[in-house]
Amino acid sequence: MTLFLICVFAYLLGSIPFGLILTRAAGLGDIRAIGSGNIGATNVLRTGRKGLAAATLLLDGFKGTLVVLWVHAYGHGGVFLASLLVFLGHLYPVWLGFKGGKGVATGLGVLFGLCWPVGAVACAAWLLAALLLRWSSVAALTAFVVAPLAAWHFSSPANAALAVLIAALVFWRHRANIARLFAGTEPRIGKKA
Predict the structure, then answer these.
(1) pTM of the predicted protein model
(2) Fewest CB atoms less than 10 Å from the CB: which of 22, 39, 99, 142?
(3) Closest to 192 measured CA to CA, from 54, 58, 60, 44
């Protein structure tokens, strides 16, 4: 019963669409109606509101970290499952008809909670790719190619396996971005809607 409640809590916390909540609270309307239609920080940045984008990034990441640390702190077990469910909650939130974000910030938050050096290496890979190439999608994909390798080096085989699973889902959620990259139509970071 405890594991079931942990899983429900993890999924519901992951389902909170902070990008949508923050942009509506700021009077910007429905973030899903602009840019990529995504609820994440990159699309919030397209409103021109850097503070809102940063808040979205931090809150989406924090919900991933919070679940992992909470399960660890109380020794309930089920860290792998809770980590996966908070991530899936962001991708497929019940509140939005199971149409959520791409999971980059929440996935990175999970990695930070599991083993902070893994999260730090993945974030550094994202930042470097973003600065050099100016595509958020390429930065995200780079981070999640690096993440399983970092998890294998700094953490455990179980965390490396979770990082592979999260990476596979991030790639799946970015399939339209990948198609646009090949077509040369993917927008750069900071481009307004």
Answers:
(1) 0.92
(2) 99
(3) 44
